[in-house]
Structure formats: C-alpha cells, structure tokens
C-alpha cells in the first residue's frame, strides 16, 4: 500500500511551489537591505483594488522616501524619485538604460512599436521617426488639425446654446480622436457627431480600462498568452486592435498604388521617411524642449546617439503600422486628459482664464491669425499647459530596465543586470520639496522668468532623455491650437455639477478622476456673461 497517495504528493508539491512564488517578493528586497511597502502575492504593489496608483505613489514617497523597492506583478522594481539619479538614468547613463521593461504583447507587428522596441531596433526606428516631429513638419499638419479645431468649436457652440453643463472629457476625447484619426490613420471620424462610427466605437473599446485585462498584462507570460489566443479565449483576443491594424495595412497599400495624390499626414511622412534625410532637431524646437527636459547637453547626446545608421534607412510596412497604432494609443487619451484638466482649471480660476484671454486677444487685435506661428510661442498659454501637466500628469510612471550591473552610490546599492526602475511622475510632481504648494494651480511656475527655479528632472510629464515622448510637440500644438481658439470666443465657468475637488480613480498607466463637468457660453453671443 502506498504511504502517500500520488494525489497527496502533487498537492504538497503544488503548495510548496505556491509558497515559494508568494515568498520571493517578501524576501527579495529585504535580503538586499532595501525598504519598501508590503507586497500582495502575484499582484505586487500595483493595481490595488481600493487605492489608485497616484495615491499609492504619494503614500510610498512619504513613508519610504526617494529610493525603495517594490514589485510589479512578480518582478522587482526600484522606485526612484531623486532628480539627480533620474537624470543619470534617463540621460547620462542612457547606454545602460535603453529599454523599458519588456512588454507581454505577443502580436508580431505591434511589438515593433516605439514604446516596446528594444536596443538597436528602437534606436533605428526612433532615428528615422524623430525628424517627423520637428516644428517644420508639424506646421505641415496644421491644416488637418485646424479642421478638427473647427469641429470642436462647433460642438462647444452647440453645447453653449443647449446645455447648462457638459462632460468635458467626452468632448475633448472626440477632438483628440478626430485629430489622431486624421493625422495617423488618414480617416475622418467626425467623433462629435457620429457616435456609431466604427473607428470611434473600436477605439473606445480598445482604450477602456479592464481590471482583468490589466492583471493579465502583469501576470500572464507571452507563451501562455499565445496559447490562450490560439484557443480564442476572450480576454486575450482583441478584435478592436485587429481593426486598426487592418485599416493601416489597407491605407499603405492604397498609397503605394496611387503615388500621384499628395498627403500631409503622419502616414505619408513615415512612408517617405529616410534616416539622415531631415534634421533631428531644429532651432525653432528650442521653445518647448523644456517640457521633455532637453537642454544643450541632452540635445548633443541625442544627436550623437541617433545619427548613427543601423540597418535599413527606411521603415518597413509592419513598422509603419506598429507606429500608427502606438501614436493613436499614446496620443489620444493623454492629450484629451490634458485639455480636460486645463479647462477645469480655467473654469475654476477665472483670473487665470482672463489673463489667457487677454494674451490670445492681443494677437487677434493685432490683426494676426490664431495659427501655429502665433499660438505655439505664447508664454502664458504654454505655462498653463505645463502647470496642467504637472498637477494632473496624464502618465503616472516612467520605467527603464538596466542592461548591466549599475551602482547607485548615494543609496549604497548596485542594481543587478535586468533589474528595473520606476520613476513615479505623479508623486514627484506633487512633492513640496520640488514644487512648493503643490496642490495649487499656479502657471507662474512655468513662465520663462521663473523656469530656472524648477529643479531639473522634477518636471517629467513627457519623460526625459533620448527616449522621451516623441509626440510632445504634436500634443502641444493640438492642445494650444484648440485652447487658443476656444478661449477667444468662449467663457468657461463652474456649474452645479463641477466638483470642487477631483477624486482620483483606479487606472493602469494613466490618471483617471471623477468626471469633469463645466459650463460654457459663447462670448460673442451672450454679452451678459461678458466678464472678459
Ligand atoms: C499630453 C500628451 C502626452 C503625454 C503627457 C505623453 C507622455 C509620454 C510619456 C511620459 C512617455 C514616456 C517617456 C519616457 O519614458 O521618458 C511617452 C512616450 C511616448 N509617447 Fe507620448 N505623451 C503624449 C502625447 C503623445 C502623442 C500625441 C504621441 C504621438 C503622436 C505620443 C507618442 C509617444 C511615443 C511613441 C512614445 C515612446 C517613445 C520612445 O520610446 O521612443 N505621445 N509619452
């Protein structure tokens, strides 16, 4: 007779494996003498069902300081919010911090996108794409953006006439959807009016936050995802994603067949892009490069890094599709949130709104148009957007993975190869050590005369170093052209539905809050509201 039936043995073994899996996170940082918050088995320190990430970041900063250990799923990560070390990681020692943490996207086409690409693949694609986002190239897209600003204006005009209050994110989301669909997918969405438009419906589904999918991102390894997809398990399929990939492949095919038609969108720029053909940076880019922490030192390093040729000088069809997709994912929600929070702050701070109005009106009074050249360099408008991005940073965290052992002497710690770093943007932006009175919306901080008081690498809405947000200038032009045009004619103010304090909700990578509602009136038609 068996002393222990085999099912018992399997049970005991399974329990031992489970115990080891659970206890690794409990001892990993302790063994290295690094403090950190308690960890949930398998989930780690992210995705707490009741404590949204931004609030957790601030709790942890208060309790554990600028340097501590935590877990993403079962992966150990260091949280670093010391600006001097952040600069080393993002810029000076970039050769060791090329990569983000590996993603678990198993789609062969999409894994070539700029956010996920690694090592030389990233460098090649980035060096071909960077010239697409210089001032002179963005000016070419002004016409396309202008059409979307017109639709936004009309939508707000209708709301001013018919509603006592409107949910700002819906309207701004429609605007940024129109812009990115036009510029990256050559598609007219008319999102303000056509709610059933296939593009709009698929896009919204794709970007919905789903707790189970989010858990899957951390916990399920690629090989398992592939198997689950083969068996068509719902949570591991994405028909919405396939919809966008198909559109993009079809468009490239059409463009290659019809070479006489002229386009001025991103897709065309990518099809024509060639390494070394255009400048990586232009003198005009200087004005807003502080948003990505680029000064002379960073500029030189970036130019040196990206001027090297590796492999093909052109993007392949799959690479172009992957980039269109990531531009959409990275650009739609982030810019919509920025505009939403900016309008919330303007509605709740009438003095600031008035000063912005005066700045914009001065251009119009001078007989000049509110176009790219006149709007992009308005200092107060720029400062309002910067302060919005500080106080309500849409992206919560930056991450990098180290490719060799790396000492951090200040904290008497050496990172192991492949260990990762998280940079908690939200907590850094709300830390009074760096931004006095951090909860106050105060655009003055970012006026040119005050900017040198900001500690370098303590303002990181678009990240920093050669892997910063490539779409920063695109997002800025979209936001500035939109806001300038609206503020010229509309007055925004609080309604009975406007929250005095926005409550933060659970989201995975991006800031989510309770809905923002405000009211607006057309200044030209409603003279009784004309406090301007
Ligand atoms: C207000 C709007 C936006 C915000 C706040 C934002 C923020 C960010 C941040 C924080 C990063 C990570 C940077 C780092 O790791 O150092 C990033 C990367 C990126 N963003 Fe944006 N972004 C915005 C708009 C856009 C737009 C409009 C596009 C495209 C048109 C875009 C495309 C990308 C891409 C492709 C990357 C990856 C760059 C690389 O790894 O080389 N973003 N963005």
UniProtKB/TrEMBL annotation:
GO MF term (any one): heme binding
Keyword Methyltransferase attached: no
Cofactor(s) listed in the protein's UniProt record: heme
The entry's keywords: Endoplasmic reticulum, Heme, Iron, Membrane, Metal-binding, Microsome, Monooxygenase, Oxidoreductase, Transmembrane, Transmembrane helix
One GO cellular component term: endoplasmic reticulum membrane
Keyword Transmembrane: yes
Location(s), subcellular: Endoplasmic reticulum membrane; Microsome membrane
Topology within the bilayer: Peripheral membrane protein
Pfam families: p450 (PF00067)
Chief place of localization: endoplasmic reticulum
UniProt-listed InterPro entries: Cyt_P450, Cyt_P450_CS, Cyt_P450_E_grp-I, Cyt_P450_sf, Cytochrome_P450_3A
Residues spanning the membrane: 6-29
Residues involved in heme binding: 469
UniProt similarity note: Belongs to the cytochrome P450 family.
Function of the molecule: Cytochromes P450 are a group of heme-thiolate monooxygenases. They oxidize a variety of structurally unrelated compounds, including steroids, fatty acids, and xenobiotics.
PANTHER family assigned to the protein according to its UniProt record, in alphabetical order: CYTOCHROME P450 FAMILY 3, FATTY-ACID PEROXYGENASE
Listed name of the protein: Cytochrome P450 3A4
Record organism: Dermatophagoides farinae
């Amino acid at each position: 007779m068996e002393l222990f039936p085999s099912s018992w043995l399997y049970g005991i073994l399974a329990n031992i494996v489970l115990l080891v899996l659970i206890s690794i996170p409990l001892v990993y940082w302790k063994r290295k003498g690094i403090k950190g918050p308690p960890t949930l088995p398998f989930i780690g320190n992210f995705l707490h069902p009741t404590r949204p990430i931004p609030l957790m970041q601030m709790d942890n900063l208060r309790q554990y300081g600028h340097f501590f250990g935590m877990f993403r799923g079962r992966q150990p990560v260091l949280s670093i919010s010391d600006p001097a070390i952040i600069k080393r990681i993002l810029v000076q020692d970039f050769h060791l911090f090329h990569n983000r943490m590996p993603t678990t996207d198993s789609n062969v086409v999409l894994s070539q996108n700029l956010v996920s690409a690694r090592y030389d693949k990233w460098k090649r694609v980035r060096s071909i794409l960077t010239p697409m986002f210089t001032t002179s190239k963005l000016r070419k897209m002004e016409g396309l953006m202008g059409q979307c600003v017109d639709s936004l204006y009309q939508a707000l005009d209708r709301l001013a006439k018919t509603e006592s209050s409107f949910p700002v994110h819906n309207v701004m989301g429609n605007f940024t959807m129109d812009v990115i669909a036009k510029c990256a997918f050559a598609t007219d969405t008319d999102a303000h009016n056509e709610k059933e438009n296939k593009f709009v419906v698929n896009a919204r589904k794709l970007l919905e936050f789903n707790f189970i999918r989010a858990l899957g991102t951390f916990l399920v390894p690629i090989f398992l995802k592939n198997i689950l997809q083969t068996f068509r398990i719902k949570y591991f399929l994405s028909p919405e994603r396939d919809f966008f990939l198909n559109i993009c492949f079809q468009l490239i095919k059409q463009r290659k067949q019809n070479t006489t038609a002229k386009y001025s969108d991103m897709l065309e720029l990518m099809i024509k892009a060639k390494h070394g053909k255009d400048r990586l940076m232009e003198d005009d880019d200087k004005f807003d490069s502080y948003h990505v922490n680029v000064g002379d030192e960073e500029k030189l390093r970036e130019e040196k890094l990206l001027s090297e040729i590796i492999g093909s000088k052109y993007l392949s069809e799959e690479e172009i599709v992957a980039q269109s997709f990531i531009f959409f994912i990275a650009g739609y929600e982030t810019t919509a949130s920025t505009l939403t929070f900016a309008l919330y702050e303007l509605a709740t701070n009438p003095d600031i709104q008035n000063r912005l109005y005066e700045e914009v009106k001065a251009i119009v009074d001078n007989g000049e148009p509110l176009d790219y050249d006149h709007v992009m360099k308005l200092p107060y408008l720029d400062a309002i957007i910067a302060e919005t991005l500080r106080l309500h940073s849409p992206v919560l965290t930056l991450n990098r993975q180290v490719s060799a052992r790396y000492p951090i002497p200040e904290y008497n710690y050496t990172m192991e190869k492949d260990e990762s770093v998280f940079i908690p943007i939200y907590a850094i932006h709300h830390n009074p050590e760096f931004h006095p009175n951090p909860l106050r919306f105060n655009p003055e901080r970012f006026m040119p005369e005050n900017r040198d008081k900001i500690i370098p690498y303590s303002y990181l809405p678009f990240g920093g170093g050669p892997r910063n947000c490539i779409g920063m200038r695109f997002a800025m032009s979209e936001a500035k052209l939109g806001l300038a045009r609206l503020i010229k004619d509309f007055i925004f103010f609080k309604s009975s539905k406007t929250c005095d304090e926005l409550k933060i909700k659970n989201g995975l990578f991006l800031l989510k809050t309770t809905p923002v509602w405000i009211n607006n009136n057309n200044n030209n038609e409603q003279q009784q509201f004309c406090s301007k």
